[in-house]
Amino acid sequence: MADYAAANIRLHAAGAIYFTKDEDADIREKFEYCKRAGISVVVAGDPTPESLPRIETFAKEYDIRVAIHNHGPEDKLWPSPLDVLKAVKHLDPRMGCCMDVGHAARAGTDIPKAIQAIGPRLFNVHMKDLTDFSNRDSQVAVGDGIIPVREIFQALKTINYKGFVDLEYEIYPENPMPGVISSFAYMRGLLKGMNYSS
User: Fold this and answer.
1) Tell me: the pLDDT tens digits for 103-153?
2) Is 42 helix (H, G, I), strand (E, B) or coil?
3) Does some domain include residue 59?
């Protein structure tokens, strides 16, 4: 932590963290890690619906939000962020969603409408772009695909979203920086054109 603080880096989320055991000791270990690191959002990979009440107990105890990550049509539990919303809407307000826009699109989700439906339970956004919603391997730099990025940012603005939009650029691991730079340039240009200020 001291190294991050010295570099003026503040960690905002950790994950995906996988809750493979519905057991106090295992869950507490993950929350303790986030508390020590000063992290306020746990991005949860694949908790079972049955484990959510136990996880909720720790979210309240540690005052750390839990954002369940959707993983597209292959995910039997959480294909869409709307599936997450159904499971958490009656739980503590610290239980919510990390929306992966690429996986959401592949699950047939209208992303801007989902953002508005999820509202204050949207704690984190994973941004990427695709050229084909039926192909998870069609990722490109943000702005080069068909994800409705401008509409996503407009929906985030509409709900007064205060969280982070994290770029997930998962291609060209041997030389990712050109795509990363292009993605950020596109998103910053969109936000500037929308007169968005944080």
Assistant:
1) 999 999 999 999 999 999 999 999 999 999 999 999 999 999 999 999 999
2) strand
3) yes
The confidence score (pLDDT) of residue 197 equals 65
Q: Mapping DSSP to helix (H, G, I), strand (E, B) and coil, where does residue 3 land?
A: helix
Alpha helices in 38-148 (DSSP H): 52-62, 81-88, 101-106, 111-118
Residues in contact with 166: Cβ distance below 8 Å, sequence separation at least 6, in sequence order: 13, 124, 125, 126, 127
Whether 132 maps to a domain, the answer reads yes
The model's pTM: 0.93
Residues 6+ apart with CB under 8 A from 198: none
Q: Tell me, what's the pLDDT at 143?
A: 97
d(CA 119, CA 96): 10
The burial of 148, by beta-carbon neighbours within 10 Å (0-12 exposed, 13-18 middle, 19 or more buried), is given as: middle
| Domain presence at residue 198 | no
Q: Are 7 and 35 in contact (CB under 8 A)?
A: no
Domain contains 61: yes
What's the number of domains the chain is made of?
1
| Range of the structural domain that residue 68 is part of | 2-193
The CATH number covering residue 106 comes to: 3.20.20.150
Q: What are the residue ranges in the chain where pLDDT is below 50?
A: none
